[in-house]
Design brief:
The protein has ten helices and eleven strands. With 338 residues, the chain is α/β, with parallel strands linked by helices. The two termini are 24 Å apart.
């Protein structure tokens, strides 16, 4: 269900008011349909996130997708506070998302993990807290503890259902307004819902024209869970890319469609995802691209172009997390259809 909100800042390039749709979640809370992803790539690039958030706020973004894993929440918190003190925004204008990392799935670690995120972000609460992956890792200082012999991640013995039950307490205590999951397959969601007293508001997953998640989206929507799309542009600069992996941005078809609407290939991909009904969180540290990515609410892809782009799906997953293939809760096992 979409409502419209007119953000108070003028678009810094086009000098027009930005209209960003709000999507109503299953708990009645609304979330801006477009947000900024804050993962900034390999170590050493964490500082880029702060300036990206400042530029995004000036451009009209109010939804920011963060995570403990990204190691930049302190920088993002400082950027948010800078803009609040500048008078550009108020806390209540923002929708802040963060995620529980895999080494922190033990129920006793869940609340301290969120409190650490809140401390770094300089916030009293976040708007949405996600379980980043269903698979837990061995606890310790390493983000991805790895077996030196196999190169695979070392799992923990924690069931994601138990982790979820601990997360529910966070919402009851007011530390987060909503809860969700990320990278869950249909079987895992089905299993979670058998025990959950709070239904996840979203399942954040990879989604782009080469991997449009038709079946998973329908499954989730039938249960009141909306998809949030990460990598909507195919993450062309992803650090784990291997030779021969797909690169959506080099496909000339998107540029050709864009010519019809006077838009870039990236704008066409983001608009496609939004018109599927998803929440979309493209990431960028480029001020130009941050502004370009939000300048998509002045046109609609027609039905023929939407149908045409749906035919591009080739099961082209680009975030397979190969290091976890032997984990008992690995979500992308070939025997699970979606």
């Amino acid at each position: 269900m979409l409502d419209k909100i007119i953000l108070s800042r003028n678009h810094s390039v086009a000098n027009i008011m930005v209209n960003v749709p709000l999507i109503k979640l299953n708990n009645g809370i609304t979330i801006p349909a477009l947000g900024l992803g804050t993962f900034q790539g390999p170590p050493g690039h964490e500082d880029e996130a702060g300036q990206a958030v400042k530029d995004a706020i000036d451009a009209g973004y109010r939804h920011f997708d963060c995570a403990h894993l990204y190691q930049n929440e302190k920088i993002i918190g400082e950027a948010i506070q800078y803009k609040i003190k500048e008078g550009v925004i108020k806390r209540e204008d923002l929708f802040i998302v963060s995620k529980l990392w895999n080494t922190l799935h033990r129920p006793a670690l869940v609340e301290p993990a969120l409190k650490e995120t809140l401390k770094k972000l300089q916030l009293d609460y976040i708007d949405l807290y996600l379980m980043h992956w269903p698979q837990g890792f061995k606890e310790g200082p390493e983000f991805v503890p790895t077996d030196p012999t196999t190169g695979l991640c070392i799992p923990s013995d924690i069931d994601y259902v138990d982790t979820w039950m601990a997360m529910e307490e966070l919402q009851k205590k007011g530390l987060t307004k909503s809860l969700g999951v990320s990278n869950f397959n249909s079987k895992q969601i089905e299993r979670l819902l058998k025990s959950a007293t709070i239904v996840p508001v979203t399942n954040q997953v990879e989604c782009h024209p080469y991997f449009n998640q038709t079946k998973l989206r329908k499954f989730c929507l039938d249960r009141g869970i909306i998809l949030t799309s990460y990598c909507p542009l195919g993450s062309p600069e992803r650090p784990w890319q291997l030779p021969g992996d797909i690169n959506i941005m080099t496909d000339p078809k998107f540029k050709e469609i864009g010519k019809k609407y006077g838009k870039s290939a990236a704008q066409i991909m983001i608009k496609f995802n939004l018109q599927l009904g998803n929440i979309v969180i493209p990431k960028s540290s480029s001020k130009h691209r941050i502004i370009e990515n939000i300048n998509i609410f002045d046109f609609e892809l027609n039905e023929d172009d939407m149908s045409y782009m749906k035919t591009f799906d080739c099961n082209g997953r680009i975030c397979p997390y190969r290091e976890c293939v032997e984990h008992p809760f690995y979500p992308f096992k070939p025997e699970v259809e979606f």
